[in-house]
Amino acid sequence: MAITAQDVKTLREMTGVGMMDCKKALTETDGDMDKAVEWLREKGLAAAQKKAGRIAAEGMAYADVFDGVGVVVEVNAETDFVAKNDKFVEFTKNIAAIVAKSNPADVDALMQCRYDDKNSVAEQQQEMVLVIGENITIRRFDRYDTGFCVPYVHTDGRIGVMVNMDVSDELATKGEVVELAKDLAMQIAALNPLFLDKSDVSADVIEHEKAILIAQINEDPKNASKPDQIKEKMVIGRINKYYTENCLLQQAFVKDDKVSVEDHVASVAKACGGTITVKNFTRFEKGEGIEKKQENFADEIASLIK
User: Fold this and answer.
1) Does domain 54-145 have CATH number 3.30.479.20?
2) Which of 69, 73, 98, 165 could lock 141 by a disulfide, CB 3.0 to 4.6 Å apart?
3) Is 55 in contact with 293 (CB distance < 8 Å)?
């Protein structure tokens, strides 16, 4: 019986096991879905299957540059304890190196890349689950193969940042430029800007912010009765504040809050006699947006006794 990609996808969704193992199970059982599930259980992958449903919101965000290619990855585990495990850290760093080398289109494509001579990334992930005893997931990655990249990892992988800049050739090795990129990376880690530049903020976002600000003004007894043109000026002022809070280039530079980031970048470029353009950045914070399971400790003990 011919095994289709949809069959593999279905078995993967049923079991949480990697695609290569699912394909192998279906091949061994002539495409019988129930028998394939049993085959995976018999091979010891059921342990990984059970863990696949558990919430992995800890882990590690990591950033590095490999032969000029900048990579940021987030790999999750269930507990902070495991996130500090040497094997887990090594796995995360190796995943970043594979992303740099293989340039996968997305996480699914990454899972099919070779991890080593023995395993695919998917197979190695399953081995990690079985060896470490927790659900481990590769959540996301970003990759820059052009420009000048400088990475920053904050507090053992809580936050990983990559700053991507275009710099004129003579500036690429200057200490001042590397220091600038590291300063920006630390600012991104600390202040979490939503955009690079105010020009990146869509009209929809601005209209939404304006509507909120108008509502706030109308709710304030001191301002509700003011003329519309005054309210409009107040809104413009607050929109400018939105830019300085949420756009990296318009933020105050952390080491000198009297100048903006864009003015500081221009100043460094002028002092070094070249050009510097901040093109992009990526900031991954481990567990960001993942709803962590909250359990009462006493209830957990009681459930174990039962």
Assistant:
1) yes
2) 73
3) yes
Can you name the residues that pair with 283 across neighbouring β-strands? 161
CA dihedral 13, 18, 23, 26 (to 10 degrees): -60
CA distance 283 to 285: 7
Please write down the long-range contacts of 29-38, taking CB distance under 8 Å and 24 or more positions apart: 30/1, 31/1, 31/2, 31/3, 31/7, 33/7, 36/11, 37/11
DSSP notation for 32-66: -HHHHHHHHHHTTTHHHHHHHTS---EEEEEEEEE
pLDDT per residue over 18-29, tens digit each?
788 888 999 999
Q: Which residue has the tokens 């990526």?
A: 282
Query: Which pTM does this prediction carry?
Result: 0.74
- The Cα 148–Cα 166 span in angstroms is 6
Look-up: residue for tokens 């091949």? 27
Q: Where are the domains of the chain?
A: 5-52, 54-145
Give the CATH superfamily of 5-52: Ubiquitin-associated (UBA) domain (1.10.8.10)
Using alpha carbons, select from 125, 100, 148, 152 the residue that is nearest to residue 48: 125
C-alpha 131, offset from chain centre? 25
Backbone phi, then psi, for 275, in 5-degree steps?
Answer: -120, 145
pLDDT value, residue 228: 82
